[in-house]
Write the structure tokens for this entry.
Amino acid sequence: MTALTYLSGYPAHIQQQVSQLLEQGKLAQHITIRYPYLHDIRNDKALYRYTQDIKNTFLKKAQPVTKVIYDDKLTLSHQALGLHSYVARQQGNKIKAKNEIRISAKLKKVPEAFLRMLVVHELAHLKEKDHNKAFYKLCTFMEPDYHQLEFDLRLYLTLIDNHQNPYQ
């Protein structure tokens, strides 16, 4: 059985099915049929606009996001595809706070649905810091297919780990 790092929390029968598809060379085909097109959001400015559009649609009253960038330092090996950071600095009597979102540069060439799922995930951290029930409820409010997209992104990452990137 192939190592399925990104699927370790899933039941054994799911892991077995994925492993079989991977060994038969059918997993990449499964992903490309579901998600045939890559997004065209290639730079930080476009990523910021994309993120702001989602935020303004679902989280108008949430704290502002001051920076959204693709980050080359976020790698698949660290299992971090996105980071939300809250930075507070005191200047005199005022506290200045900034919310920043960093998305792995590895996601520049993936289907838009995967990018959207990750942006929704990071935006949800504006309201909910922990990965709890309220957090995932907010994620599914912003993206109804959130859980399916997260699973499919994990399948894609499994393909990457096994040197079978269907989008290269």
Q: What stands out?
A: The chain is about 45% helix and 15% strand. The two ends are 25 Å apart (CA to CA). The CA atoms of residues 62 and 126 lie 7 Å apart.
